[in-house]
Task: inverse folding
């Protein structure tokens, strides 16, 4: 590509895109920069990106000492993994039955799914909280995971995907002697990986970032998820120690951002697919 | 969980082969759908019914007995200044974030689509906020918005402009939160628009040009905008719903303040229900919240029905 | 004892009567083609036989055993689907092995990892591998065994689908338009191969197609289904030369049979131009409406003389070994098609007035309800006497 092909229109286009990208990335740039600055540095020169003294070690040490970051990340992984496994294992058979088997309740189930798509956790949180409180199950993985074991969105997404699978494939499997659970395990799931991947990304992003429900059911640091932990950290860090705060946000943001950067094609495909199907 | 285990072992074992094939198929379908159905009932249908029911009571957590108060909660909502403020703020927030994030995303998507180089870099850059922990990034924004040591005001100062107290002043807090909201949601919309744009057949643009649509704007009006119709409708609904559900940034940064200038619907519900434990009253608010979602979805279906020529 | 018998199969889908009491028997090793226009119920019948759908009423007997309520997997029926329905995530070898794995290995043995530790497992798996390889060799697809369906051509997929169906030696073999996704050249080649395979395996086969050429060229007997009823089941030759129903005559034969509306005249005769036939047994009263059918190859075209139906040539189709002549009858304005040799067609051209004569021995007479009425030609002398008398 020669410079001659850089017409004025194209230069304008690239400048807008570049400037926009810079603005969108600015928070990350400042996060990384500030995480390495000493308190005095932050107060005097907020616009210079390179720290005057390298304070990364001190800030990270502070961040790690106030809240158990390892614990937070571990909780995040455990909760997201449990939620995902339950959602997939429960949604796939149901979606298969609705998409490929004839039974009278299929239509009623479809109505339930469409209604369910409307109801976010925010709407059901009050009675669920009361119930978990009565059951003495607050501050537990059960409380964090249970309400999300059912994902009507997952059912909906898999349903759309399964409907597009040819009926003959399932007929062939039946003639070949497979049972219905066998068909799900041996034919449907191996051919539904794009949908499963897309749904996994959607689910993990949603539940890794969720603050509302953990905030309600968890008051004990031992079960705090990353967003909740960061909230505790902010509360503990009453002053304006932005160096340590940025170090903490960096640690907590890193896993998902890294996963995204490593598999961004899948991420974007996944979000596009879940978005357009939903 | 014992209830869940029963049908699943039934599946793993042999399904009794009795009755007609239709009956067999229906029975297997029931077994496969049963766990999901049960959980939908337990975690969605019953709680929604409970919320509607609790909305007619004065139930408070910690007090054993409660009574039915009819529409009293709703009457109270009607006079509740905080709740009205919160509804208004939510509407303003959605009114800013939705159009700005949609048109910004559409514009950027078309620029990226037209540009040959850096496609994946730009997509990644704009999408990064979607994959980032919002609570964490809100904290970063709090630093950027800091009135005295924040980079934004420092930058404004170099041009001689006195920066506002972004998150600290009741006149600007909602706009500051909206900026974060836009920043966070553009990438999601952008990716959907990019997919929509890629799906438009090239021949349509060629045909438009042959038919005399000379300027880019003409081609946009003739091809791009109508072809993106379903995507735009979906993005609009999702954006409105997501802005109505704004909570994380408010809880992290402002706690509804200053002076209730950033009270939003979910935050008010959270405060009433889980901090003051007035479950009955908060349930009534939740019913209003649900009603808003239902109306939005209903509007989407109505518009979708009218757009038959797009499908 | 017949290998397969279907008794009075009825099926409706939401008020649509798809199958109206179909009865069909297949002998051991017989190849039956089920042919009919799309929507005639032939695929539904096949699916009911396979156990993928259930009939509203009627019985299915396979090798003398009542299988009406049996599960698809228990009927020991193999099927080749129009789309082939190969498992996209499995290689050709794995695809072919599926029916063997499902039948020969118990549920426990099929478990990943654990199954491998069961006694006798090695032998069972080795047997399956051997059978798959033998099957592949006989269909000449050994070189494809490691490929997935996505990496194969249509013809290759079709062979893998055949192999998967045949590998377990089914008691009945069903094929649902297995050649319709192949291009024309490959299709003719594949016809011969399937017939060959059938001869070698000797498994009774029910072959669904909408292509009459396929049905006539491959099958021992052809079953013509139209509108949910089986109208005739007979050898290809009988189906063509002696159709028992107007719809059968209409559906089979290319170009289509000529059908002319007519009336029974006095003396139980019918006339097509100068050609007359008499109804055997006086099966219909004088004045009742009938349809006369004459195949294009039994219509002769002549530029001279004044016998036969006057017509004008509209269009000629030169097909190499024959010429199809489309004529419009002067009297009733209907089109009549004749098939002539290139020599006969040499002096014909559009617009030319001609006389069309039907061969009386090949006129079919159909009653108003479509059934065939037996008729015999009257000699032309008798005809003339009748005319003058």
Result:
């Amino acid at each position: 590509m020669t410079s001659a092909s850089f017409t004025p229109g194209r230069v304008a286009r690239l400048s807008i895109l570049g400037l926009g990208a810079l603005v969108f990335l600015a928070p990350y740039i400042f996060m990384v920069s500030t995480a390495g600055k000493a308190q005095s540095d932050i107060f005097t020169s907020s616009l210079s990106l390179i720290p005057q003294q390298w304070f990364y070690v001190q800030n990270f040490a502070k961040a790690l000492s106030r809240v158990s970051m390892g614990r937070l990340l571990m909780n995040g992984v455990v909760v997201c993994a449990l939620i995902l496994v339950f959602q997939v294992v429960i949604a796939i058979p149901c979606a298969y039955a609705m998409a490929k088997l004839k039974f009278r309740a299929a239509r009623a189930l479809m109505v339930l799914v469409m209604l369910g798509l409307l109801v976010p956790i925010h709407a059901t949180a009050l009675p669920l909280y009361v119930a978990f409180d009565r059951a003495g199950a607050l501050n537990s993985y059960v409380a964090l995971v249970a309400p999300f074991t059912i994902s009507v969105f997952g059912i909906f997404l898999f349903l759309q995907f399964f409907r597009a699978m040819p009926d003959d494939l399932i007929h062939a499997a039946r003639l070949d002697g497979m049972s219905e659970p066998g068909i799900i395990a041996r034919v449907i799931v191996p051919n539904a990986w794009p949908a499963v991947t897309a749904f996994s990304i959607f689910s993990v992003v949603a539940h890794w970032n969720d603050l509302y429900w953990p905030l309600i059911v968890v008051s004990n640091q031992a079960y705090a998820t990353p967003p909740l932990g960061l909230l505790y950290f902010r509360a503990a860090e009453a002053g304006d120690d932005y160096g340590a705060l940025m170090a903490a946000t960096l640690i907590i943001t890193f896993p998902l951002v890294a996963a995204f950067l490593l598999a961004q094609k899948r991420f974007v495909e996944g979000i596009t697919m879940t978005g357009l199907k939903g | 969980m014992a209830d869940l285990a029963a049908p699943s072992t039934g599946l793993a074992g042999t399904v009794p082969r009795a009755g007609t094939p239709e009956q067999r198929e229906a029975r297997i379908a029931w077994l496969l759908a049963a766990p999901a159905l049960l959980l939908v009932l337990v975690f969605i249908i019953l709680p929604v019914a409970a919320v509607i029911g609790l909305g007619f009571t004065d139930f408070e957590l910690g007090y054993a007995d409660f009574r039915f108060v009819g529409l009293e909660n709703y009457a109270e909502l009607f006079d509740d200044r905080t709740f009205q403020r919160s509804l208004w703020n939510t509407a303003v927030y959605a009114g800013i974030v939705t159009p700005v994030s949609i048109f910004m995303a559409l514009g950027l998507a078309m620029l990226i689509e037209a540009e040959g180089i850096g496609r994946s870099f730009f997509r990644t850059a704009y999408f990064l906020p979607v994959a980032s922990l919002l609570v964490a990034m809100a904290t970063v924004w709090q630093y950027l918005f800091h009135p005295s040591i924040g980079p934004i005001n420092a930058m404004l100062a170099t041009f001689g402009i006195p920066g506002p107290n972004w998150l600290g002043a009741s006149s600007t807090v909602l706009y500051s939160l909206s900026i974060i909201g836009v920043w966070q949601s553009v990438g999601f919309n952008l990716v959907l628009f990019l997919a929509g744009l890629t799906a438009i057949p090239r021949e349509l643009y060629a045909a438009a040009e042959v038919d005399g649509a000379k300027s880019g704007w003409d081609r946009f009006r003739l091809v791009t905008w109508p072809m993106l119709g379903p995507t735009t409708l979906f993005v609009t609904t999702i954006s409105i719903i997501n802005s109505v559900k704004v909570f994380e940034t408010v809880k992290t940064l402002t706690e509804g303040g200053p002076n209730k200038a950033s009270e939003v619907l979910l935050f008010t519900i959270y405060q009433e229900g889980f901090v003051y434990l007035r479950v009955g009253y908060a349930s009534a608010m939740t019913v209003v919240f649900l009603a808003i979602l239902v109306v939005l979805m209903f509007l989407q279906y109505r518009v979708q029905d009218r757009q038959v020529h797009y499908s | 004892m017949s290998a397969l018998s279907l008794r009075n199969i009825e099926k409706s889908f939401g008020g649509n009567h798809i199958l109206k009491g179909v009865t069909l028997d297949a002998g051991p090793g017989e190849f039956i083609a089920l042919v009919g226009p799309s929507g005639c119920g032939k695929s539904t019948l096949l699916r009911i036989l396979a156990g993928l759908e259930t009939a509203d009423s009627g019985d299915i007997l396979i090798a003398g055993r009542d299988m009406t309520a049996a599960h698809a997997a228990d009927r020991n029926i193999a099927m080749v689907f129009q789309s082939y329905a190969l498992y996209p995530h499995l290689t050709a070898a794995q695809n072919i092995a599926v029916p063997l794995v499902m039948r020969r290995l118990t549920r426990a043995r099929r478990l990943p990892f654990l199954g491998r530790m069961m006694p006798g497992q090695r032998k069972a798996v080795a047997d399956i591998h051997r059978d798959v390889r033998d099957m592949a060799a006989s269909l000449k697809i050994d070189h494809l065994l490691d490929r997935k369906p996505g990496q194969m051509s249509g013809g290759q997929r079709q062979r893998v689908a055949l192999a998967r169906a045949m590998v377990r030696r089914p008691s009945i073999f069903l094929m649902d338009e297995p050649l319709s996704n192949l291009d024309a050249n490959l299709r003719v080649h594949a016809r011969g191969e399937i017939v060959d395979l059938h001869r070698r395996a000797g498994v009774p086969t029910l072959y669904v197609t909408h292509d009459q050429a396929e049905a006539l060229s491959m099958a021992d007997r052809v079953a013509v289904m139209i509108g949910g009823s089986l109208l005739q089941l007979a050898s290809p030759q009988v189906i063509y030369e002696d159709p028992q129903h107007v719809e059968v005559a209409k559906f089979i034969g290319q170009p289509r049979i000529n059908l002319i509306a007519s009336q029974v005249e006095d003396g139980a005769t019918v006339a097509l131009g100068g050609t007359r036939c008499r109804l055997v047994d006086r099966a219909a009263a004088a004045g009742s409406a009938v349809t006369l059918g004459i195949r294009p190859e039994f219509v002769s075209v002549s530029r001279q003389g004044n016998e036969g139906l006057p017509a004008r040539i509209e269009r000629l189709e030169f097909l190499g070994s024959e010429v199809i002549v489309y004529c419009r009858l002067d009297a009733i304005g209907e089109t009549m098609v004749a098939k002539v040799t290139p020599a006969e067609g040499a002096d014909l051209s559009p617009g030319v007035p001609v006389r069309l004569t039907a061969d009386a021995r090949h006129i079919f007479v159909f009653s108003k309800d479509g059934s065939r009425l037996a008729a015999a030609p009257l000699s032309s002398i008798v005809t003339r006497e009748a005319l003058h008398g």
Notes: The interface with chain C takes residues 166, 168-169, 171-178, 182, 186-187, 190-191 of chain A (CB under 8 Å). Chain A is about 75% helix and 0% strand.
